[in-house]
Amino acid sequence: MANTLADIQTVLRIRPFRRLWTVLGLASFGDWLALFATAGFAQSLFDDPAAKGAAFSATIVLRLLPSLVLGPVAGVFADRFDRRKTMAACDTARFVLIASVPTVYLITNNTAVTVAWLAIAQVCIEGAVLIWSPAKEAAVPNLLPPEKYEAANQLSLATTYGLAPPLAFAVLAILERGQNVWANLGPWAEPMVIALYLTAAMFGILAVTVYFFIPQISGRYGQIAAKTSSVWNDFVEGWTYMRSRERVRGLILGMLGAFSGAGILIGVGTVYATTLDAGEAAFYILAVFLFLGLGAGIAFGPKLIGELSRLRWFGMSIVLAGVGLALDAVAPWLWVSLLGSVVIGLGAGMAFLAGITLLQRETEDEIRGRMFAFIAVSARVILMLAMTVSAPLAGWQAARQLDLGFTEVELSMSRILLFVAAALVAWLGVTAFKSMDDKPGVPVLADLWSSLRGRPLSAAVPVAGSGFFVVFEGGEGAGKSTQSVKLAAWLKLRGYEAVLTREPGATDIGMRIRTLVLDSGGDSAPGPRAEALLFAADRAQHVEKVVRPALERGAVVVSDRYIDSSIAYQGSGRDLGKDEVAWVSSWATGGLKPDLTVLLDVEPQAGLHRAKAGGTGDRLEQEELDYHERVRETFLHLAAADADRYLVLPAAGTPDEIAAAVREAVAQRLDIRTQTARTETGWPGLDSDKHDAKTPGDYGWSTVAEEAGRP
Ligand SMILES: Nc1ncnc2c1ncn2[C@@H]1O[C@H](COP(=O)(O)OP(=O)(O)OP(=O)(O)O)[C@@H](O)[C@H]1O
Ligand SMILES: Cc1cn([C@H]2C[C@H](O)[C@@H](COP(=O)(O)O)O2)c(=O)[nH]c1=O
């Protein structure tokens, strides 16, 4: 899933997408150019500096207003009508509207009329953008296979936010600078007038391109009958769809959370910058770093996180943006603040990319336009609200100096607001993560860490049954076999289907592996890695053929050794790395974890003495004492790290004492009344009658392996 340059080249080889991408690039360029050219044009109509400033910001505010009115129904257009025609119509409208602004000025030469028309045109242009964007966003999935959405979005976002704005600014700068050269050509040659005509012409070309050269944008529309439901019904349908889909809701919530944080950041930005004592330019430097982070997140995020679940990545990225905001809120120095800004950008960029890609995948074609419109509109509204509320608040109350001991931080309202934004964004990130998590039970940080190293953890394959899985672990001669037999016998007596099994060797293949690993010596002995893989192969077969089926039947499975043995013997004993070995086993077992692991802790020397019983022992029992010490340490560490799942018992107790403690723990978990359990210890064959019983045969029954005719 991690995409590379090769993925981007692949999507660009798809002709309809390549054309759409070119259209998008030019449209974004045109949008930025139109926005700043109209604002600049409005400014140029006045001489008074205050009026100039007001004209500039009023033009931008006018662009945001239509979201409130047209927003709710903008997406309906994308889902209701042919998207190709919708886009072409919007481009034509933009062509006419943008060209009309300087034309009205040139014809009337009247500032009041021009300003009035400019205001109307601004609102209509934004209306066209609001309808055009969801249609384009919803069209992308019709041109590409789903696994290419991410690369396509990377390309589109990089174009919209990385390439188009600097190009637009460069063109405006060139026009401004060139003004002197063609100043005598008359009012139509003024820089902003040229910019507006240039932009208008571009939208004219785009309308023709979309209409005649990318028929694929029409997608399903060409194949289905025209819709007969009302626009209002379409809107309600979109809203109901969003509310009923948990993942879609999580996605939208997370994205809007990120936008509210961005709004607060922009709102408090200029005031906050003054608390850094870094001069006038601090705000702009912060903005540059924010965009650098944003670009890096979009460009390198997917490569960095590799195969990490995109649903998880989305929530994590939003939390990361929250961490960046918190860093900015407490930053005592400019460099910390710049770091915070990069982190915010990284998180926001990755969340944006993951969010759009997921939304394209999660929503059906006929509803997609409304989902994208909802996001676009809500984002604008939230941005505006957050900016307008936080900007005046930021300057409220004088700042105080907070002495941190090593330095002083200026505690101001802007920092408090940043902190509020950080908490809000992080909370929404966590909420989105929880509502969309596709790998429940897989530890988040371990999953992230493994993914960064190229080996994501898989979600556990669920067990469709109510069985219970108990494992005995411990060093050589700890008494595992003795205790597993006792426990299984007791469970059978209690009426449970108890399946007594072991590793290695519970299956046919397992038995052959056992011989290979334990009995081959000298040159024919497996090397450490082969040994680890052989144990994992035995385990995979064991889980698939014995453990899972039994758990699915509702049985209690009692296994003599499981994954921890590999982590301890191969991971630590052979020094292959505990995480690596655990990952291999986790993959082999589909993430099946025991409900209870009983660790019988034994001094290696004493255990080996018991296990060898005067003989030489198998290949692993012959290892140095050091090796067995490492094995013991690792067992103890594993148990300490997950105390609820483990029962650690010193193996020095008598077999009966240990058996009673084990029964108690199992009884508690199986919800058998301990009182009842205790009263039946007099069953012949358990405890006192058979102190040295350690094989099922001692109780007159057999293990899984023996039932299958194996020793
Ligand atoms: N609690 C105990 N105290 C003393 N001896 C015990 C105890 N439990 C088991 N034994 C004895 O120790 C020897 C090894 O026991 P067992 O085979 O149950 O250990 P194990 O952990 O399964 O060994 P291995 O790792 O070699 O499979 C046996 O002779 C058994 O009778
Ligand atoms: C499952 C498993 C086992 N081992 C080692 C541990 C023991 O030395 C033998 C098994 O012998 P036992 O008498 O049946 O206990 O194999 C290992 O190294 N790694 C494993 O994953």
TrEMBL record:
One of its GO terms (biological process) is dUDP biosynthetic process. Residues 472-658 form the Thymidylate kinase-like domain. This is Thymidylate kinase. It catalyses: dTMP + ATP = dTDP + ADP. ATP binds at residues 474-481. InterPro entries: MFS, MFS_trans_sf, P-loop_NTPase, Thymidylate_kin-like_dom, Thymidylate_kin_CS, Thymidylate_kinase. The chain crosses the membrane at residues 20-42, 54-77, 194-214, 251-275, 281-301, 313-335, 341-359, 371-396, 416-433. Residues 677-711 are annotated as: Disordered. CDD domains: MFS_MefA_like, TMPK. It comes from the Bacteria. Its EC number is 2.7.4.9. It holds the Pfam family Thymidylate_kin. It is an enzyme of class 2 (transferase). Coiled coil: none annotated. Phosphorylation of dTMP to form dTDP in both de novo and salvage pathways of dTTP synthesis. GO terms for molecular function: ATP binding; dTMP kinase activity; transmembrane transporter activity. One of its GO terms (cellular component) is cytosol. Keywords: ATP-binding, Kinase, Membrane, Nucleotide biosynthesis, Nucleotide-binding, Transferase, Transmembrane, Transmembrane helix. Belongs to the thymidylate kinase family.
